[in-house]
Amino acid sequence: MEGSVRTYNVVHLPGDGIGPEVTAVARDVVDQAGKRHGFSVDWRHSPLGSEHYLRTGEVLSDETLAELRPADAIFLGAVGSPSVPPGVLERGLLLRLRFELDLYVNLRPAKQRPGVETAGADDLDFVVVRENTEGLYAGAGGIAHQGSSFEVATEESLNTRAGVERCVRYAADLAKRRGGKLTLVHKTNVLVNAGSLWMRVAKDIAAAEGVDLDYAHVDAACLYMVSDPGRFDVIVTDNLFGDILTDLAAALTGGLGLSASGNLNPARTGPSMFEPVHGSAPDIAGTGKANPAGAVLSASLMLDHLGEPAASAELEAAVDAVLAKGGAATTSAWADALTAEVSR
Predict the structure, then answer these.
(1) Is position 137 annotated as part of the catalytic site?
(2) Res 1: pLDDT
(3) Which of 66, 173, 185, 310 is the most buried (most CB within 10 A)?
(4) Average confidence (pLDDT) over 213-240
């Protein structure tokens, strides 16, 4: 029996603040689910984050990146510290991982959870597929004449047909699997060049895949997410708009503490990365108050990506069951409650 156990190599990057606390809980429930479903995870620790940077001056070396590539997945807690200037870790670690590992889809489910007080309408259950390597986050632009009265700052949005096509194709396939429709969100009446590319690609792929396609300007989509979220099933959008829409979705469904994300390489030419989106929260780090729900739900996405849908569903159901009972006040209480649910 032991020889038949499936093994996955996962890099555990706990990071900063509450990251180590919440991912430790998630690791435990993943291991517990693995025993029930016939798989194991070989967790490989990575020290990357603020402390590593402050100690070594290194954000992400080429050697460390090469060590990450063979993994089946990366499980990230959170990075960020008041001691590190803004942008150092965001660009040097998170964005570099997205670009180098070709994590071109950012997947963010938005779903009402039992026992959670939410804002807006009560029929919210959709997924945002955000293009993750292009747009305004590609790093094109610069500053000229800095510090003078003639200073000019530019940011350029880069959108390639290949990049848009593969993102929309993933979203269309997801919409087919969910049995719903695909909604493109952009700002085609103002961003006429990028908007035209996204619209033409979305129409072509939706027609080829037999998926119903809707469209909403990004400002209108924000309104609909509050007043009529049931109109959405799978949203596909560019990098910046997706970043904004997913935080609004989190606010509508109980906050960032319950939000999960996957940074996916659907072609599987390298590992995908999974992380809760709540940040490092240094103000509560070490207090025992961190909520691990987002980390466990991110681990659920990871298991689904690795080909363990039953275990994935079990972790999500465990989170929902704890929330339905009112949640838990401490990290350790969450851990105990989740363990009890997964053991049922």
Answers:
(1) yes
(2) 39
(3) 185
(4) 97
